[in-house]
Design a protein that fits this description.
Distance between the termini: 32 Å
Number of helices: 3
Helix content: 25-40%
Structural class: alpha+beta
Number of strands: 9
Shape: elongated
Order of helices and strands: EHEEHEEEEEEH
Strand content: 25-35%
Length: about 200
């Protein structure tokens, strides 16, 4: 049976034409495309703090399941330590995505399609007891999970997509919606993947 397509409808952004030949909206999309692209470049350079200039002070990141129900909401100050902790645990952490396109249903919103996170746990112990992701930020909080000792296990998360909403006056990002397209996504997905790998190696 064919699996349903969970991806949000989108359309391509013209990044090849000269700005003088584009409409104001198309030029705005080009600028936003470059902002999103730069954010992902900084993440892969393991310099998440560099995203601050592209975000509003009241920036919020929402994490949703495939049913689009919000599971967690984090401010930038809450999100960045979580990302840093994951990078410290997995020094080779890498983010990959398929494309950056404009939302069909929400013009001006950019979608990073089918992004995945890959890496190996060779750094610091990794747990889900980060004080930045406690019950006050988690809509459905996970129970504290003890740190996993690094054993070198690798992981590939299931795909997700990120929706970037821009403030029309400043052109800064005020909201990011991360929508899971599979079961194992985000830091909890990393934890579960590593825990399953550890259990498998301990009980071959």
């Amino acid at each position: 049976r064919e699996q349903p397509n969970l991806s949000s409808p989108s359309k391509p952004i013209d990044m090849t034409s000269d700005a003088s030949a584009l409409t104001p909206h198309q030029r705005l999309l080009q600028e936003r495309y470059r902002i999103v692209e730069q954010i992902w470049t900084w993440q892969n350079a393991h310099q998440p703090e560099q995203v601050r200039p592209y975000c509003t002070r009241d920036f919020q990141s929402s994490f949703c399941g495939p049913d689009r129900v919000v599971q967690a909401q984090l401010s930038l100050d809450q999100m960045l330590p979580t990302i840093r902790h994951l990078m410290q645990a997995c020094p080779d952490l890498k983010f990959m995505y398929e494309s950056i396109r404009e939302s069909v249903t929400q013009p001006g919103v950019l979608i990073v399609h089918d992004f995945v996170c890959v890496g190996h746990h060779t750094g610091v112990p990794f747990g889900l007891d980060n004080p930045n992701t406690t019950a006050d930020t988690m809509v459905n909080p996970l129970p504290p999970m003890p740190p996993l000792v690094p054993q070198g296990h690798g992981f590939v998360l299931d795909p997700s997509e990120s929706h970037y909403h821009f403030d029309p006056e400043t052109n800064l990002i005020y909201k990011e919606e991360v929508i899971a397209l599979g079961e194992h996504t985000g830091p909890p997905g990393v934890y579960l993947k590593l825990a399953l790998a550890a259990e498998s190696s301990n009980h071959p």
